[in-house]
Amino acid sequence: MNLSYRIAVRYFFSRNKRSFISLIARIAMAGVAVGTMALVVVLSVFNGMEDLNRSIFRTFDADVTITPLAGKRFKVSAPLLRSIQGVEGVKLVTQVIEDNALAHYAGQQTIIKLKGVDSTYAERNQLDTAIIEGSMQLYGPNGTPYAIISEGIRNALSISLQDIIIPLELWYPKSNTRAINLNSTDAFNQIAVRPGGVFFIETRYDDYVIVPIKVAEALLGYHSERSSLEIQIKPGYTEAGVSQRISSVLGAKFIVKDRDSMNADLLRAIGVEKLFVTITLSFIILVAGINIFFSLSMLAIEKKKDIMMLYTMGATPLLVKKIFLTEGAIVAFTGAGFGILSGIAICWAQIQFGLVSMGMVSSLVDAYPVKLIWNDIFMAGAIIVMITLAVSYVPAQRAAKPAEPGRL
């Protein structure tokens, strides 16, 4: 066993008999433990929130989305579709028309986001898990166009799927109308569809109505034009990799983004919040670590005679520094060990039993999502190492100085 470690362990256990120094050491240990535990738990919550948001995006957003560089729409041709379909990793290409429109139902109206999709949309099976009433079908048995509406639109218009008499009317201003008279129905294109299903994901998607692309094309006047193309990738391929390959094929006329890029602002905000929380909790651990500084400083005063005796026996200043650095490490790492184990236990209990609820009736999950990532635990350990070195160095340096050979 290393000599400096053996002496540091002896000092650690022997000083516990000294009430005041022992109290400061225990306070330091407890402070490091609580700070480390909080760091592990909070970082795990942020990881869980990031995973939850990605799962929400995965329910509605495509793996890769292609939009025009300029304008809201672009011409879609068979050669263009073939070139995209030929890219390695592409499974399905869904043609999409999306724009704002006006929805009428039983004398009520609201602004909606109308999304027209082709038949490949149902093959993606994304929205199936979010359907809370009805079914995911865009056409009835007799070819009647159906609309898949969000829970927010159903509540806003009091839509009943059981009512087969009252249709959902979709209105959009005619392109050749210069001045829109809201009181005149002649200023709008109108199409009636039947609500066939209701989905709920979360509030950001609460104003969507999904219809067959032919309905959206006729209503919005998109003659063979589309607002975007949505790509579903094959298993085993990454969204970023397929996105890059599609971008190289299409050139600079199109913007190609994977799902994370489409939601980059929210993911970046979570990352920034996680960074600032890490910095804040690191300062809290540093404040707790200051007690290590005072504990080592008083220990150095108490052990002055022992240090002088070590020098007379041939010890070097480096050995004395190592003794006090090791002493600080024992206090810090013991606290950090308890903190990490406690943080892991709390996260495990939250995952298994959902101890802390989200407190929202309409939330997709009942309890706060938590995800443990070992990199965060290693980062917490690295923070403890840096803080321990920072607060232990000065007392260790001072402990060695009085006993240097020239000053005995």
TrEMBL record:
The keyword Membrane applies. GO terms for cellular component: plasma membrane protein complex. Signal peptide: none annotated. It holds the Pfam family FtsX. It is found in: Cell membrane. Residues 27-247 form the MacB-like periplasmic core domain. The lineage of its organism: Bacteria, Pseudomonadati, Bacteroidota, Cytophagia, Cytophagales. The chain crosses the membrane at residues 20-46, 275-301, 329-353, 373-394. GO terms for biological process: lipoprotein localization to outer membrane. This is Lipoprotein-releasing system transmembrane protein LolE. Belongs to the ABC-4 integral membrane protein family. LolC/E subfamily. It comes from the Bacteria. Residues 281-401 form the ABC3 transporter permease C-terminal domain. InterPro entries: ABC3_permease_C, Lipoprotein-release_system, MacB_PCD.
